[in-house]
Design brief:
By secondary structure, this protein is an all-alpha fold. Helix content is about 90%, strand content about 0%. The protein has a domain of about 30 residues.
Amino acid sequence: MRHTKCWIVAVASLLALAPFSSSKNPSAVDAEKGRLQNSGKVTQEILNVVALW
C-alpha cells in the first residue's frame, strides 16, 4: 500500500511538471497558437452548420 501511494505521488508530480519541462522555440509557439486559433474557428463553423439543421 505504501509503494502504491509513492507511485501515485510520483506520477502526479511528473504530470504536473511536464508542461514546464518542454522548451519550444518561439516560432513553434507562434505556429501552435495559430493552429489553436484556426481550430477554434473551424469548430465554431461546424457548430453553426449543425445549428442550421
